[in-house]
Amino acid sequence: MTPFKVYILGCGSALPTPRHYASSQIVELRGKKFMVDCGEGTQMQLRRLRIGFNSIRAVFISHIHGDHCFGLIGMISTFGLQGRTAALHVYAPEELGQMLSSQLKLFCTHLDYEVLFHGVNPFVQNTVYEDNSLSVETIPLEHRIPCCGYLFREKPTLPHIRRDMIDYLNIPISQINNIKSGADWVCEDGTVVPNKRLVSPSDPTRSYAYCSDTRYIPTLHERLKGTDLLYHESTYGDDNAKMAETYYHSTARQAALVARDAGVKRLLLGHYSSRYENEEILLEQAKEVFPETFLTNEKAIFDV
Predict the structure, then answer these.
(1) Whether 89 and 221 share a structural domain
(2) What is the pLDDT of residues 222-248, one digit of tens each?
(3) Is the domain of 112 the same as that of 208?
(4) What's the CA gap between 135 and 129, in Å, rounded?
(5) Known catalytic residue: 67?
(6) How far apart are CA 185 and CA 171, in angstroms?
(7) For 10-28, what is each residue's pLDDT tens digit?
(8) Buried b (16+ CB within 10 A) or exposed e, 51-64
(9) Catalytic pick from 67, 189, 213, 238?
(10) pTM summary value
(11) Nearest alpha carbon to residue 75 among 37, 105, 28
(12) Residues forming a β-bridge with 134
């Protein structure tokens, strides 16, 4: 299958710590790279993971709390220093557009590329980006300010060619794309070989959901049914459940409830509060509800 990967650049929360960077991830599918959130230090993590600055097509920002967007203008400036010419698309709640416009006028007046801002409505689930490989949808979340997650859905690929049939029927290479697109094959004697005998089914499509920041939403699973990989913020453990409710965050156990109810395959925890020096306690609490739970950490790479 074509690689579909999530690179963890940062998985901490608002307060900086020596152990974790602020929120940021790279989603890669079919050679295309997209960034989700861009906290401080994101550029350093791109360097450490050897991700080319010019390879990032678009940035998706969940909300305008600093630990999710303070790294954006610095990264845009660096892209300019690196000689970027391809446009950079930024998707975020409308409030970020005003801030970004002011920052660009102050710090980035001579870029050789365009920064194109696309305001998203964080209160509805909409497709905000689409190409021939994937689509990206907003996921309405509940935080102290307008906030949304993002759902990356892979598009179906063409079926696989059955090499044994191609060789047996002496079908020329020039006809392979037609057959993959659904064409039958007509032999010299006029016999029609139906397409289903010439191909095998394409690989199943995959999906990745990013949900941060949000308090526990009992109905969130309805938007995530069948997702392969879910990242759900887990700022607190059971010991701080009241604080999670007050500040519109989630506990690790609540993240696991969402994963279980959505029927996802795997759950990633992140956005850890700085009060936890060891996140294993969060992992233990989540696994009591949903065993296929994993901790994120800087420089970790997960296959979807």
Answers:
(1) yes
(2) 999 999 999 999 999 999 999 999 999
(3) yes
(4) 6
(5) yes
(6) 8
(7) 999 999 899 999 999 999 9
(8) bebeebebbbbbbb
(9) 67
(10) 0.93
(11) 37
(12) 154
